[in-house]
Amino acid sequence: MKRAILVVTVALAMILVNSSGPASAGRPATRPQQLVQAIVVLTAQVDPSTIKAPNRRQRGAALERALHATADTTQKGVLALLRKRQAQGLVTTIDPLWIVNGVSVTAAPSVIRELATRPDVRRIDPDLAIPAPITPRSTATTELSPAPPEPNVALVNAPALWNLGFRGQGVVVASMDTGVDGSHPDLAGRWRGGSNSWYDPYGQHPTVPTDVNGHGTATMGVMVGGDAGVPRSAWRQTPGGSP
Q: What is the pLDDT of residues 37-58, one digit of tens each?
């Protein structure tokens, strides 16, 4: 498997080199458009199952220490090579990653090929941005009356459980997505509230549940949405995630 991944990486690097055409005598070996963005994942990885501690909090702290220690110890060779190639103008960015124990790098294809031959490198992945899925648009109008259970909900016999009184009482459901529009009529009454119920890792909306994409609102609606607004199947993407 490793050999196959490395072959693909090298092939990609060679395509980028060949597409630039022959270099003249006075032309630098690399140009910005030739550089490759990649994540170099190292062979040494921490197995979380081996981390033992008296409780969950201490185990999390111990795991974090182990991840840092492994990265600090095993990345030295790769970082030394990258800094050397950076001085030669073949690498522009180097960003060590301690959770995955890898290095995000922007480098010439020749450097990617060189990294692929190292025994301390497990694999090399392309560093690509993955956009959040776009929720489908709909022209459905707002329905004031409660809608019947949607087919997929009825198919798993959820209404039968509802009739027995099981409606998720006391259960907290969380989501990690593009955010949640806390003002959505189908979700506003379902939010637990409190300072420990919303977290924005980027600090752009630190206190109020917000969704500038709409996808996270739609997925949360599938999980816990009510019927105060339009049916969840008719939700569409808007700047605030509301229908």
A: 999 999 999 999 999 999 989 9
Mean pLDDT of the chain: 80
203 vs 193: CA distance, rounded Å = 18
List the 102-107 sheet strands across, edge first: 91-97, 102-107, 36-42, 121-126
Specify which residues 123 forms β-bridges with: 41
Work out the angle at residue 199's Cα, subtended by the Cα atoms of residues 48 and 174, and round it to the nearest 5 degrees.
70
> Looking at residue 136, what is its pLDDT?
55
Can you point out the beta strands (E) in the chain? Answer: 36-42, 91-97, 102-107, 121-126
Distances (CA, A) of 187 to 80, 98, 209, 217, 218: 51, 36, 11, 9, 10
Q: Is the dihedral of CA 73, 77, 78, 84 positive or negative?
A: positive
Contact 236, 243 (CB under 8 A): yes
